[in-house]
Write a structure and sequence with these properties.
With 734 residues, the protein is mainly β. It contains three helices and 34 strands. The chain has a single domain, classed as TonB-dependent receptor, beta-barrel domain (Maltoporin, Chain A, Beta Barrel), CATH 2.40.170.
Length: 734
C-alpha cells in the first residue's frame, strides 16, 4: 500500500470490509514529511480534515470534517486500536476534546480516515468521519529515544515573547515466542502563545480622563462592536506525561489477545499579561474579570484500560471482542473570580475563586463482532454482525472556594453543577456481496436503543432533577461499487445516521450572566441522510478522485436563542434542534509519485461545501428577526478547504517536504451576522505553509528540522493560533 492514498486496492480485502472511503497515512510517511509533535498532527494534510490545535499539548484539539466544524466533537469518532478516544460526554470545543494523550506519536503504525456514516458497524457519531489509529507491536527487540524542541517567535498586539516546547519520548518493545509487549512514555513541557485576549468596550485607547488606564489597543469584535484589547490571557504552561503498556499473546496462529493500560497526567497553569497602566506608569488589571478568568491552575489525570480478543482464521468464521474503560481520575481547574482594580506592581487577584471539577467522569464500552463467509474467503458473501454497549457519565460541579490558590481548596458552596449519564445498546448487521466480478454491493442496518438519565442541575440555590429520556432508531445503509475498467472505480453510498445528544448537551449547565444558558434534556437526535458518489481513476504512479456528497439533516443540534418567558425581551441561549439543514459538497483529490523525477511526490485536495439552514422555528440570535437564518450558511463550517503535501526523496536517507493547509472564512452565527473576520473571537480565512527536512544518518540515528506556518501568517479561529514555529528532533534507535 502506498504511504498516502485511498485504501481501496480495488475491493478492500479483510474480515471487516467497510463501504466507506478510506484515506491512509503511514508511520514512514509521517516521520519523513510531517512535523508531528502531537498525535493529531499526523492527519493535518488529509482531505477535508482540520484539527483545531491551538498549541502543543492542546487538550481541546477537536477534529473538523467535511460537513461539520470544530464545535462538533461528537459528530466524528476517533479510535486507538479499536478503543474509543472521542469524549462523547460532550459535543463542543472544551471537554469534548478527544483524549489524544492516550496514544503517543511514536507508537503509531498508520492512521485511517473513513468518511461518512455508511458502515453499520459504527454509531451515528460517524456522520462526520471515523479516525482509526493503529499502533504496532514489535517482532524483535527494539527501543527508541526521541528528543524534540520547538520554538515559536510570537508578536501580536502588546505581546512579544518566545515560547518553547520540550518533548522526550522513550519506547521499548520485544517479542518472545507467542508473547510480545510494548512500553512507551512521553513527556512534554510546553509554553503557549496567548490563547485569548482580555477585551473591554469601556476602556478606550484614548482615555477620557487623566486617571483612566492607558495602554488599550483599538479593536472591534466579529460583530464590529468595540472590543479594545487590554491584555493577553491563557498564557498556558503545561507539563504532560503519558505512558502506555501493551501486551499481547497469541494462543494460536489465528487467535490473539491483547491488553493495554494508558495513563495521562497534565499539570498546567495559565497566566495573563496586562497592557494597561495608570497615570503613574504602574500596571493594572483595572478590575476586569477577563484577567481573572484567564488565570487558572489545572491538574488532570486520566487512565484507560482495554482488552481485545481477535481471530484471523482466513476461513469461514472470525470474531472480535473489544472492551474499554476510560476514567477521569483527577480533573480540577482552580481560578480566581476577581482581579485587582487599583494599580499594583504585584498585579494581585482576590482570594475567592472557583474550582471546576470533572473527577468521576468517564465511559465504558463493549463491542462484540463477528464475520461469516458461507462460501469461504473467496465466496460472494461476507456477512458481518455485532453488538455494542456504552455507558457515559458526566460529573461536572463548579464549587465556590475562599482560597483558589490552595492545592486542596475548601469548598464553601456549589456555584453550578451539571451531571448526567447516557447509555446506548446497539445491534448491527452488514453483508458484502460480490454480485459480479465488477460489482460489489454492501447492505447493512443498525438498531440503537439510547437513554439519557440521572440528569441533575444546580445554579446557586436552584436545584433541578432532569427527566429521563430515551430513543430507539433503525439506520439502514447501502453501497454499490462498480469497476467499469481496470483503472476506474465508481462507488455510490447512502446511509441514515442518528447522532444522540451527549450528557453535556442534555444536562451540563455551563454558566449564567447577562445571557442565561441552559441544558436541554428534550433534544431529539441529529437525523441525517448522507449520500456520496465517488469516481476514482488510477493513473500512472497515482490516482485521481472526485467525490460528490450531501448530508441532509433534520433536528440538527445547534445553539440558539429564545425568550426566557413568553413575550419577554430577555433571551436565553440553549442547545436545541434546528429543523432542517443541508450540506452539499465536492471533494477532489490528486496523488502522484515520481513526478518529473524519481522521488518527487505530490498529494493534494480541494473541498467545496455549501452548507445552509433550510428551516428554523427558533431564533437565530438575541437580536435576529424570525426567519433571518433561513438560507444562511451553517456556523463553523468553511466554504472552501484545501491541503497539499509535496515531498522529495533526494536520497534514501534525505527527504524534503512542503505542506500547506487552507480554509476560507466561516461564520459563527446561524444568521451570519459576523462582519469582521480577522479579529479575536472571529473565524478568519487562513493559509499555513509548513516545511520539513528529515535525514536518516545511519541505522541508529535520525534527525529532522521543520517549520510550521513558515510564512508567519496571523489568523483567528475564535482563539489565537500559533505563529511561525521551528522544530528540531533527534531520534536514536537500538
Amino acid at each position: 500500500m502506498p504511504d498516502f492514498v485511498v485504501k481501496s486496492d480495488r475491493f478492500l480485502e479483510g474480515k471487516n470490509q467497510t463501504p466507506q472511503l478510506i484515506e491512509t497515512i503511514s508511520a514512514a510517511k509521517m516521520e519523513a514529511t510531517i512535523n508531528v509533535i502531537d498525535t493529531e498532527d499526523a492527519v493535518k494534510y488529509l482531505p477535508s480534515v482540520f484539527m483545531r490545535k491551538r498549541n502543543n499539548g492542546d487538550t481541546q484539539a477537536v477534529m473538523a470534517t467535511r460537513v461539520w466544524g470544530t464545535s462538533s466533537s461528537a459528530r466524528s469518532l476517533i479510535y486507538g486500536d479499536g478503543v474509543l478516544l472521542s469524549a462523547l460526554i460532550a459535543n463542543n470545543n472544551s471537554i469534548g476534546g478527544p483524549r489524544w494523550g492516550m496514544v503517543a506519536p511514536a507508537e503509531i503504525e498508520h492512521v485511517d480516515m473513513l468518511y461518512g456514516p455508511f458502515s453499520a458497524a459504527y454509531s451515528g457519531n460517524s456522520m462526520g468521519a471515523v479516525m482509526e489509529i493503529s499502533t504496532r507491536m514489535p517482532e524483535t527487540f527494539e527501543a527508541t529515544v526521541n528528543q524534540t524542541e520547538v520554538w515559536q517567535d510570537f508578536k501580536q498586539y502588546g505581546t512579544k515573547a518566545d515560547y518553547f516546547t520540550h518533548q522526550t519520548a522513550v519506547n521499548i518493545g520485544n517479542r518472545a515466542g507467542k508473547f510480545s509487549f510494548w512500553i512507551s512514555g512521553n513527556f512534554q513541557d510546553s509554553h503557549s502563545q496567548p490563547l485569548s485576549y482580555v477585551t473591554s468596550a469601556t476602556i478606550l485607547a484614548v482615555p477620557a480622563a487623566p486617571t483612566d488606564p492607558i495602554g488599550a489597543i483599538t479593536a472591534f469584535n466579529k460583530l464590529n462592536a468595540r472590543a479594545n484589547i487590554v491584555g493577553a490571557s491563557g498564557l498556558l504552561h503545561t507539563r504532560m506525561i503519558n505512558g502506555k503498556i501493551k501486551v499481547a499473546y497469541e494462543f494460536t496462529p489465528w487467535m490473539r489477545a491483547s491488553y493495554s493500560y494508558g495513563f495521562w497526567q497534565n499539570k498546567a497553569d495559565a497566566k495573563v499579561e496586562t497592557y494597561l497602566k495608570n497615570s503613574a506608569g504602574l500596571p493594572t488589571y483595572a478590575g476586569l474579570a477577563g484577567f481573572a478568568t484567564g488565570t487558572y491552575a489545572l491538574e488532570q489525570e486520566n487512565s484507560a484500560h482495554s482488552f481485545t480478543l481477535r481471530t484471523d482464521t482466513k476461513q469461514n468464521w472470525d470474531f472480535e471482542a473489544v472492551a474499554s474503560h476510560f476514567s477521569y481520575g483527577k480533573d480540577k481547574q482552580r481560578s480566581p473570580t476577581t482581579a485587582s482594580a487599583t494599580a499594583d506592581p504585584s498585579l494581585s487577584f482576590g482570594n475567592a475563586g472557583r474550582v471546576a471539577v470533572l473527577e468521576g467522569t468517564g465511559w465504558t464500552t463493549l463491542d462484540l463482532k463477528g464475520v461469516w463467509r458461507p462460501d469461504g474467503t473467496n465466496g460472494p458473501h461476507s456477512l458481518s454482525f455485532g453488538a455494542h454497549s456504552d455507558r457515559y457519565r458526566l460529573f461536572n460541579p463548579t464549587y465556590n472556594t475562599a482560597d483558589w490558590r490552595a492545592a486542596s481548596p475548601t469548598y464553601t458552596s456549589v456555584a453550578t453543577e451539571g451531571d448526567g449519564k447516557t447509555r446506548t445498546n446497539a445491534l448491527w448487521l452488514q453483508d458484502v456481496w460480490q454480485a459480479a466480478p465488477s460489482v460489489k454491493v454492501t447492505l447493512g442496518t443498525r438498531f440503537d436503543d439510547w437513554r439519557g438519565y440521572d440528569g441533575y442541575n444546580v445554579n446557586g440555590a436552584i436545584k433541578i432533577i432532569q427527566p429521563e429520556v430515551s430513543r430507539t432508531n433503525w439506520s439502514p445503509k447501502g453501497s454499490v461499487t462498480w469497476l467499469p475498467s481496470s483503472t476506474w472505480t465508481v462507488t455510490g453510498s447512502i446511509g441514515k445516521a442518528y447522532r444522540y445528544a451527549t450528557a453535556a448537551e442534555l444536562y451540563q449547565l455551563v454558566s449564567t450572566g447577562t445571557t442565561f444558558t441552559s441544558p436541554n434534556p428534550d433534544l431529539k437526535p441529529d437525523d441525517a441522510l448522507s449520500t456520496e458518489l465517488t469516481f476514482e481513476h488510477q493513473i500512472k504512479n497515482g490516482r485521481v478522485r472526485l467525490s460528490l456528497f450531501q448530508d441532509d439533516v433534520h433536528d440538527a443540534i445547534i445553539s440558539q436563542f429564545k425568550p426566557l418567558l413568553p413575550g419577554s425581551t430577555q433571551l436565553y441561549s440553549y442547545i436545541s434542534n434546528v429543523d432542517h439543514v443541508r450540506a452539499r459538497g465536492v471533494e477532489f483529490v490528486l496523488d502522484r509519485r515520481d513526478i518529473f523525477v524519481n522521488g518527487l511526490d505530490f498529494t493534494g485536495s480541494v473541498t467545496y461545501l455549501d452548507a445552509r439552514t433550510l428551516a428554523l422555528s427558533g431564533q437565530a440570535s438575541a437580536t435576529a428577526a424570525p426567519g433571518s437564518a433561513i438560507g444562511k450558511r451553517l456556523p463553523n463550517i468553511p466554504q472552501w478547504r484545501a491541503t497539499f503535501l509535496i515531498s522529495y526523496r533526494h536520497t534514501e536517507r534525505l527527504t524534503f517536504s512542503v505542506g500547506g493547509r487552507y480554509s476560507s472564512k466561516l461564520y459563527s452565527t446561524l444568521d451570519n451576522t459576523d462582519v469582521n473576520f480577522n479579529t479575536y473571537q472571529a473565524f478568519s480565512g487562513w493559509f499555513a505553509a509548513d516545511v520539513r527536512a528529515h535525514y536518516r544518518i545511519d541505522n541508529h540515528w535520525a534527525a529532522s528540522l521543520g517549520i510550521d506556518n513558515v510564512l508567519n501568517r496571523e489568523y483567528f479561529l475564535f482563539h489565537v493560533f500559533p505563529k511561525r514555529s521551528t522544530s528540531a528532533s533527534v531520534k536514536y534507535s537500538f
